[in-house]
Amino acid sequence: MINKKHNNFKKNKMNTNRSKLLGGVLALVVAFAGVGFAGATLTMDATSITGSANVTIDGVAASIYSIGATTTTGTITIGGTAQEGAVKLADSTAALALSLGTGATGIKTIHIGDGATANILTIGSDTGAASMALKVGTGNFTLNGVAGSTYTIGAATTTGTITIGGTAQEGAISIGNVSTLPVVNLGGTVHVNSAGAGAVGISTSATDVTALQVNLKSDTDGTLDGDSLMGGYFQVSNTSGGTNMTHRQLQGILVGTTMWENAFAAYGVQGHVSVKAGAVSPNSGYIVGLSGKVTLADNVATGAVAAGLFTLDSSVADEMRTPANANGISVNIVDTTIASIIDATTNDGGAATNGLNVRGTMTNGLNLSSATIAGEGIILPTQAKDVTCTAGGIIYDGTNFWGCTATNTYTKLDN
User: Residues 413, 400: contact at Cβ < 8 Å?
Assistant: First the structure.
């Protein structure tokens, strides 16, 4: 009897709860119907909402969704700590604006994929007029990786432009500025300071052995025969039709070497040419360690013109220096037999007033005392004695030597 009464009590209580729940739902429907969808408000004061299947929060086309609008010190978390499925944000095919940390005040610390794992990040698109702007203030910009990271910039760019540094850049731009010896490859036409004055330092670290190294190899099939291979090409010019500046100096290459302490050798410019076995040049070609050329136009240069100019000077003006062994030009022939130590030729209508013209103060005009000469000491061409001569000249007429003691006046010299 007691059990029957207890069961009836439970049944009545369940019916009562169902009636209350149905009444609440009907009241909610009536409330929404009264205000319409545009003004509908739903408030749920719950610590969690859990669904056993899919959960959908949806509205109409112009609905506005606000999550955590009044939260200040709390945390908003979307997605689980073991989340493996996709988390999509603004995954739309329509044009939209996506804002992240755009508040004008308060410093935001934004982390994207910086966990200690091998994350793969793709930011941006290369479709059509897609663009990207990365900006930074005085807090600096760092692009870094690990020891074996490879960085590629503009690999697919062909007709576009890659610019590093501003048009008014005054701070340093360092490339390969390390204590070791990196390889810096520059391809194509490279302009350095082409728009204005300035200095360019290449590999300026204190332990440099080779500050700049250029390796250039020719093609192997010979299709570029006739072209020039140049390890470096430097061109300096003043503006055509501009203002004459008679004190300006134009220097294609200026090399300065300073020897502060003892060293085995010091070179301003040194050229090395290595000719391998079997390599030859045609009879009209040259193999030279150092070459200089001046090309003159129809104007007549009034200054001194020389294909090569070498100067020995004192570091203090008008203070004489007397080195133990110094030469204006020094030629060292090692393990090689050559035709001439100095060879000069006039070609294609060229002419020279003097074959050798030495001016200034000297002890000996020509000193061959230390030379081992197997043949003649000096060989003169055969000339008629009626050539115009100036005092001090010597000619050989094939039989006798004649000295010019005055203008067009010859005196026979003892054989």
Answer: yes
Closest to 164 in 3D by CA, of 151, 154, 178: 154
The Cα–Cα gap between 2 and 10 comes to 13
Which of 365, 371, 352, 363 minimizes the C-alpha distance to 394?
Answer: 365
Contact 393, 403 (CB under 8 A): yes
C-alpha span between 268 and 274 (Å, rounded): 20
249-301 tens-digit pLDDT: 888 888 888 888 888 888 888 888 888 888 888 777 888 888 888 888 776 66
Please give the distance of CA 371 from its chain centroid, rounded to a whole number: 51
In a domain, 393, yes or no: yes
How many domains, in total, are found in the chain? 1
Q: How far apart are CA 16 and CA 9, in angstroms?
A: 11
Residue pair 20/28 in contact by the 8 Å Cβ criterion: no
Among 295, 212, 215, which residue's Cα sits nearest to residue 255?
212
Residue 390 has what pLDDT? 76
Confidence of residue 29 (pLDDT cuts 50, 70, 90): very low
Lay out the sheet containing 394-396: strands in order across. 394-396, 401-406, 409-412
Per-residue pLDDT tens for 132-189? Answer: 999 999 999 999 999 999 999 999 999 999 888 888 888 877 777 766 666 666 666 6
How far apart CA 343 and CA 333 sit, in angstroms, is 14
- Asked whether residue 332 carries a pLDDT value surpassing 80, the answer given is yes
Residue 146 lies in a domain: no
Q: Is residue 300 part of a domain?
A: no
- Residues 281-310 as b or e (16 or more Cβ within 10 Å = b): eeeeeeeeeeeeeeeeeeeeeeeeeeeeee
* Contact (CB, 8 A) for 318 and 307: no
Q: Which two tokens stand for residue 26?
A: 């009907």
Of 227, 183, 223, residue with least CA distance to 202? 183
The distance between the two most distant Cα atoms of the chain, rounded to a whole number of Å, is 168
Measuring CA to CA, how many Å separate 55 from each of 45, 50, 68, 100?
A: 18, 8, 18, 25
Whether 176 maps to a domain, the answer reads no
Which residues form the domain of 394?
379-415
DSSP string, 348-405: TT---S-SS---S--S-SS--TT---SS-S----B--TTS---TT-EEE-SS-EEEEE
